[in-house]
Amino acid sequence: MGSTEPTTEPTTDVIVYGAGGQIGRAVVAEATRRGLTVTAAVRDPARHSELAGPGVRLVACDVTDPAAVAATAAGHTAAVSSVYTPDTPSTEFYGAATTALVTGLGRAGVQRLVSVGVATTLETAPGVAVHDDPAFPAEYRAFSLGHATALDLLRDSPADLDWVVVTPPMELDRTAPGTGHYRSGGPQVLGPRIAQADLAVAVIDELAAPAHHREQIAVAE
Q1: Which of 27, 40, 130, 199 is deepest in the core (most CB within 10 A)?
Q2: Is the Cα dihedral 45, 49, 51, 57 positive or negative?
């Protein structure tokens, strides 16, 4: 989807890729609550029409297509990625999506990317991820390795892409009310849980006042 050249759009604060998912919706809600203008990028806008509203523009984007990312990202000051698909193997999808985001955002001149990670890529010891434990369930390891692939691609990305991967704990409480508070640390396991609403706060904080640069961080209650 999209042309090979980014379109000219009025400046918008943030584009959220994967806005139709639960985390993406929470991020859109937190962004608009704080007065940001948002472009919600989804594969099929017809399935997510309720996202559009005051301060939120809904667009179609195949996040594995660099040209589509470039076209939709143009005119934004930052991007968020909370993408997911059940239809493609994890390593294939996250590799393609991250490559497209790095390429497309570069073409569009968007230099800040906040991506949502997965807890199983956090470290339990230096260089040892949760998914490296021999007892870790094999059926979940492939999904985690997809996120690890994305991290490696971000680490190898051009230096002018200011990215951060905000990584929640294993327990992401989707129903608990947010407190507006959270702890943050390095790429090590930090705590057992966080409310989804507070994860969204952490993501938007990294847009409003970037505190971490080209690194993975953990957040927890």
Answers
A1: 27
A2: positive
Q: Is 42 helix (H, G, I), strand (E, B) or coil?
A: strand
> What are the structure tokens assigned to 57, written together?
């523009």
pTM of the model: 0.92
How far apart, in whole angstroms, are the C-alpha atoms of residue 174 and residue 108?
Answer: 33
User: CB-hemisphere CA count at 13 Å for 106?
Assistant: 13
Helix axis angle, 66-73 to 90-108, nearest 10°: 40
Angle at 162 between CA 161 and CA 165, to 5 degrees: 115
pLDDT at 9: 43
Task: List, in order of start, the domains of the chain with CATH numbers.
Answer: 12-220 (3.40.50.720)
CB 76 within 8 A of CB 15: yes
Q: Which DSSP letter does residue 50 get?
A: G
DSSP 53: B
- The strands making up 112-116's β-sheet, listed across from edge to edge, are 56-60, 38-42, 12-17, 76-81, 112-116, 162-167, 215-220, 183-185
Chain centre to alpha carbon of residue 88: 18
DSSP string, 134-200: TTS-HHHHHHHHHHHHHHHHHHTS-TT-EEEEEE--SEEESSSPP-S--EEESSB---SEEEHHHHH
The pLDDT tens digits for 139-168 are 889 899 999 999 999 999 999 999 999 999
Contact between 144 and 159 (Cβ < 8 Å): no
